[in-house]
Amino acid sequence: MKLGAIITYALLLFSFFSPVFVSAQINNGVSCPEAAQYYAKDSINIVTFGASTVEGVKGLSFQPLLESNFAKCYAGKVINITNQGIGGQTTRQGLLRIDNAIANRTGFIVLNMGINDALAMARGIGSVAETTDHMRLLISTSLKQKLIPILCTLQFVDDRTNRELIAVNTTIRNINAAYRKLAIEYKIYLADVNAAMRRDFSLYQDPFHPNARGYRLVSYVIFDAINKAIFERFLKFIVTQNYPNPASTQTFIDIVMPESDKINVQIYDMMGRLIKTVVNEYLNTGKHTLEINTTPFTAGIYFFKISSDSGQYNAVKKFIVVR
User: Fold this and answer.
1) Closest C-alpha among 132, 111, 127 to residue 177
2) For 83-127, how does the pLDDT look when each residue is reduced to its tens digit (9 = 90+)?
3) In this model, does residue 143 exceed pLDDT 90?
């Protein structure tokens, strides 16, 4: 083994299937993301906007479940979720009220709307292109308010006993394809409700709306999408105390990056002499774990000095080497 530091980067890239969502803490089925430990703000504010699936049906909705998910994982943060769902509305009707719905709001907006558009198209009213244009305006209006859109795909309707709904599901597929393209175009976050619910109609209370289990699944999908946005945009810069400390043969230090930057990690002794440059490299957003071989160091007190090329991120940590 070479003298000096042996560096291992554990880049926890966050996506829907990323291990960043896996932790030892599980609350009633909710796997808390590691990003929750490093969230930089004091509150999580969410506007939920859409039609009946957002409004809730027969006393069921996803908002209380979503609030519970965040409350369990983001301890000490204020969770504020508003319900701006009106049953039966199309995206065109949503455009008439979006400004009032998001006035003076900050944070995230969940956009879940379009099934009524698909039903209208079955009657010869509207088109996928028009619905796409309406959603584009809903997204751009939200962005102008500096909200972070979470765009939901639409769940299928239960067409097993109603052949007229088969055409509606074809339209829903086309709308969802358009929504996925919008998410890419605007670089926003997709909550793929359709992919999660598939055609499992045991998750439905009627041909159109989720039941209690279905709404819980919807809450998980939206929770994951918002956590992805938090991971990519709202982490605070953190340098943990090395562990173990005191160290004998090796020690570890975690660095959480809010954004990509070039990071310099150096070790100094008590006299201020540079002992080792651990890393001088670009790190991306997220948590990075450095493994450092302390075998070559004599027993004593040392300091980690962490700095970034941008000058935004700096930290100093003292640690001890024992023999």
Assistant:
1) 132
2) 999 999 999 999 999 999 999 999 999 999 999 999 999 999 999
3) yes
pLDDT given at position 35? 83
- Please state which CATH class domain 41-233 belongs to: alpha beta
SS3 label, residue 165: helix
Q: What is the CA radius of gyration of the chain?
A: 24
Calpha distance 82→48 (Å, rounded): 6
Q: What's domain 238-321's architecture? A: Sandwich (2.60)
Q: What whole-number distance in Å separates Cα of residue 274 and Cα of residue 305?
A: 10
Q: Which residues does 261 contact at the CB level (< 8 Å), separation at least 6? A: 282, 283, 308, 309, 310, 312, 313
Could you tell me the residue ranges of all domains in the chain? Answer: 41-233, 238-321
Q: What is the pLDDT of residues 10-34, one digit of tens each?
A: 333 333 333 333 333 444 578 999 8
Residue 63 backbone class (left: φ over 0; alpha: ψ -120 to 50; beta: rest): alpha
Question: Is the per-residue pLDDT at 236 higher than 60?
Answer: yes
Nearest residue to 197 (alpha-carbon basis) of 150, 163, 153: 153
Give the pair of three-digit tokens for residue 294. Answer: 């302390």
Tokens standing for residue 174: 């086309």
Peptide bond into 244 cis (omega under 30): yes
Q: How far apart are CA 111 and CA 85, in angstroms?
A: 10
Task: Calculate the average pLDDT of the chain.
Answer: 91
